[in-house]
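Section 3.1: Structural characterization of target chains.
Under the original work plan, the team committed to producing a structural model for every single-chain target entering the pipeline before any wet-lab resources were allocated. The record below documents one such target. The sequence was received from the expression subgroup and is listed exactly as submitted; it comprises 277 residues.
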Amino acid sequence: MKKRILLILFTVFYWMILPSYAQNLDAAADSLEKYFNLLAREKDDKQKEQLNEKIVVFFKNALEQEQSFEYVFSSLKYIGDLRSDDNNLRIITWNLPYADGTHQYFGFIQYQKNRRTILTYELSDQSEKIKNPEDQILSHQHWYGALYYQIVVQKHKRDVYYTLLGYDLHDLYSKKKLVEILHFDKKDNPVFGAPVFKNNRRHKMRLIFEYSAEATMALNYDPNQKMIVYDHLSPFRPSLKGQYQFYGPDFSYDGLKFENGVWNTYQDIDVRNLNIE
């Protein structure tokens, strides 16, 4: 009888406090929308940074609230807000554009360890300080910043890999797209990068494609074929080899397929029956 009374009291209390969480998150979303709109119109870099600092604080406070994992920031059009198919991972990213054409990236990870525990991590973009980024294991505090637009969940034995497809506006001369790996260590800390990209017997931690700012590169996961398909990039002229601001699609396609815990590369694939955007 006592257990039943306690259960009823807990249920009533839960439904009493739930609206307050929603109201707090709604208020945070309204503030974020205001500051993102101001950021989009601002021209001065220092003012942009100050506005972005407020955005980071509002996001941090909002995501630390209970029920935030389920909350949808539907009014925020300047962010990427992705969830994995297993519903254990959420990634929010956005960019801060500077007057010189460069960009800095910001974001948060929410990881559902179990039904009662949601872990939140702030991402710190350190791209400019990372040498040989395709060969590095990174953390959320030492992150290769990007705007993520797709998550692919892969499992191998006991490991769960979240493959992230991302976009880096980079600068006035070139853009980048990347295939990133995110997984969690035994202490539930996020780890970016894993030696799962096999190309010519060399294993890379992530793949980064750089090309002309005037070009467009397709890189998407086709769920029907279970393959990441992307434009093959080549220099506009042979003499420009290695100068990636002069690279672009050459009308051939390559692909990645997850096999035995590794993303194997397939070159010059037939895309007539694939979903290419």
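The first strand starts at residue 80 and ends at 83.
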